[in-house]
């Protein structure tokens, strides 16, 4: 758990879990070129991905962005919230960057089926809701974590520039999934951005044109990634990223036509 300040907005990074994946599986089209980034890999050629969530506090508004992998993967989100001094009942809304299972795992209590964030409205990207809801069958995590929220009347579909508070607004960042959504923070002349999975690892920041095996549409994802990195580098946004090295805070820098991720 770590905290940062963007103007008057508190941003709290919470680590649910960390898992490593073979870089060649994450970037299957890169071939041997991926070996150039051995500094981001372990001795087995795996890249460690943080599975992070964020709490945004803007005055009296508390927003949780994503809910991690959940108990099946020994997730620590609820512990991290406790360490941060954030009670579950104090969360006003839970917003998902997208509906992959590693972002929805702590939605519901596995024993009772009731929402773990009892007073929150769950904000679901409309594009993802329609995409996964139309699959036959839908993904198991969608059926388990998301679909029950509709029957309980606990969810709201959002798209485009949805205002969460005076300083927090959603931004459509499609490609990783159809409805992938990020959150822009503007407060006190400072900029921040909760990125979601627009960028998966630091390799993406240096090779934004490479396809990731996790993306729904590689072409759209590449275009979104390039535009988003350029925007965030230009306005010096403090970025909170779901999968970049824990706790996920840093900035994108651009120089000489190249971009990179600088943690901090």
List the helices and strands and how they pair.
Layout: E1 2-6, E2 9-22, H1 23-26, E3 46-58, E4 61-65, H2 77-84, E5 93-95, E6 121-125, H3 126-133, H4 140-151, E7 155-158, E8 168-172, E9 181-187, E10 190-196, H5 202-206, H6 218-234, E11 238-241, E12 249-255, E13 258-263
Parallel strand pairs: 4-5, 5-6, 6-7, 10-11
Antiparallel strand pairs: 1-2, 2-3, 3-4, 8-9, 9-10, 11-12, 12-13
Descriptive terms for the model:
13 strands, alpha/beta, globular, 6 helices, 20% helix, 264 residues, 7-stranded mixed sheet, Metallo-beta-lactamase, Chain A, 6-stranded mixed sheet
How is this structure best described in words?
The protein has 264 residues and is of the alpha/beta class. It has a single domain, classed as Metallo-beta-lactamase, Chain A (4-Layer Sandwich), CATH 3.60.15.10. It is 20% helix and 32% strand. It contains 6 helices and 13 strands. It has a 7-stranded mixed beta sheet with strand order 1-2-3-4-5-6-7. A 6-stranded mixed beta sheet has the order 8-9-10-11-12-13. The protein is globular and about 50 Å long. The model has no long low-confidence stretch (mean pLDDT 97).
